[in-house]
Amino acid sequence: MAQVTAQMVKELRNLTGVGPLDCKNALEQFDGDLQKAADYLRDKGLAKAAKKVGRATNEGIIHAYVHHNHRLGVLLELNCETDFVARTGQFRQLANDIALQIANLGAQYVQREDIPSAVVDAERDLQRRRALEEGKAENVVERVVDGRMDKFYEDLVLFEQPFIKDDSVTIGDMVKQAIADLGENIVLSRFARFALGESGDTQ
User: Fold this and answer.
1) For residue range 21-67, what is the model confidence (pLDDT) as tens digits?
2) d(C-alpha 26, C-alpha 65), whole Å
3) Sequence-ordered list of residues with C-beta below 8 angstroms from that of 86, at least 6 positions apart, any chain
4) Residue 157: partners with Cβ closer than 8 Å, 6 or more residues away
């Protein structure tokens, strides 16, 4: 059996938009054959999830999570297309997992596109200055900055954070998987995180 590398998984993700775990499993099933794995995922319906993005999501739930010590809580709105899906166990579990993630890691934005461009530009300028002050060669500075910006996004952006219960998938991957499984677009519209004695972080 061909060894499945991270680069192969990345290429298949770029082709299909499917999460890394499903890509890895498909590649292993087809002995590293990228095209066969992509065809399989399309047939399975996972790749169709991306096409559902943008469809109206007028149903859903408001979900509340309160930490066991009652000093930390999250309130969020998770939307889907029909009330039927909103009542499913998988949808409600997804809402709870997302709330748990926000409670523990304190994301400030849902997706990186939500971050104001001025904030991103200021961070990139700061990281570039730091890299130059550290003596990094000019020809590698941009690569260093890109790597640090990835960490910046992971700290702030919910969908780019590895899930605290399974770091092989991100929250964004989990939402895509739920879209594929449930057959409807799913959108996290807003959330608020409350910690006792602190002002609430809302998005």
Assistant:
1) 888 888 999 999 999 998 888 777 665 666 666 667 789 999 999 99
2) 35
3) 59, 60, 61, 80
4) 107, 108, 109, 110, 111, 112, 114, 115
171-182 and 89-105 helices cross at what angle (nearest 10)? 170
- Domains, the chain: 6-51 (1.10.8.10), 56-111+159-202 (3.30.479.20), 116-155 (1.10.286)
Chain centroid to Cα 127, Å, comes to 24
pLDDT digits (tens, 9 = 90+) for 184-195: 889 999 999 999
How far apart CA 165 and CA 135 sit, in angstroms, is 38
Calpha distance 109→91 (Å, rounded): 21
**What are the backbone dihedrals phi and psi of residue 162, each rounded to the nearest 5 degrees, phi first?**
-60, 140
Which range has highest mean pLDDT (35-39, 63-67, 127-131, 138-142)? Answer: 63-67
Global pTM exceeds 0.85: no
Dig out the tokens for 1 from the structure. Answer: 């059996």
Contact 108, 156 (CB under 8 A): yes
β partners of residue 75: 64, 192
Q: For residues 101 and 163, is the Cβ–Cβ distance under 8 A?
A: yes
